[in-house]
Design goal:
Elements lengths: L21 H4 L6 H10 L1 E6 L3 H14 L12 E3 L11 E4 L6 H5 L4 H11 L3 E11 L7 E4 L8 E2 L3 E7 L10 E3 L27 H7 L3 E3 L5 E5 L5 E3 L8 E10 L3 E2 L25 E3 L5
Amino acid sequence: MTTDYSKLHELASDLFTLPKSAAEYEQFRLTDEQVDFYHREGYLSGIRLLSTEQVETLRHELAEFFSPEHEGRDLWYEYHTNESSNPDTVLFHALGAWRLRPAFHDILWNPAFTVAASQLLGGAVRFWHDQLFCKPAKHGGVVAWHQDYSYWTRTQPMAHLTCWIGLDDSRVDNGCLHYVPKSHLWPLLPITGLAGDMEAIQEVLSPEQWEQFQHPVAIELDAGCCSFHHPLLVHGSFENRTPRPRRATVINVMRDGVGSSSNDALLNGVPPVPAGTQVTGQFFPLLYDPQKN
């Protein structure tokens, strides 16, 4: 029988070690300058979260997922061997890896992630959901320009954070992230699609936004490093035409206290959280509370 790791709200393996005291947590704290940069620009990149060994363990688990017949396949919230409609531009995209394998489960409790996330959110960190974005060598598809929160309005207020973690070295030529700095100060934009048209966002930008959009920043990261970004920051990534893959896992979290704004299921296969009540429970564990750690 497949283990559903969403039932376990503690470490399932020895891949990570939790600090035993508040003093031990201090080593993972961001500097005041880093936190200020995030609030000013809408992102913070180049933070090391994983060792070489931890990256290799995650890659090993990830390799199993590419076969549609893998064990635990019924536990995904979403699973797309190709989110793109074009077989020549493959984008593997899936939600829910934390339920299927121990390393993808345990990375959520990695203190190098949770402590930084708490600082950027300004409070206790509750899990929202995870994602995999993988671009195979030589024909990886794009992730079109978007704001994450445009897909998350079923949870309110907007107190969310995205952490994009490279499982390969991510460079311009193999489809690294690009950010539009300070676009987190823009209002919520209409959805223009996630996998396909990099030009579609032009239709929803004002002239002033379009001018600012002309200067995106490429976020090049070594494997095991991450980038945090605000839920309104406009971001996307171009295709991979290199001989090497570009694999990434994404952890999406929210400040504890965020509630449901929908009576429908927040994620596929998850029991609804009634509108107006706090998001908690088996599928949305509390990862870190600075008042208790």
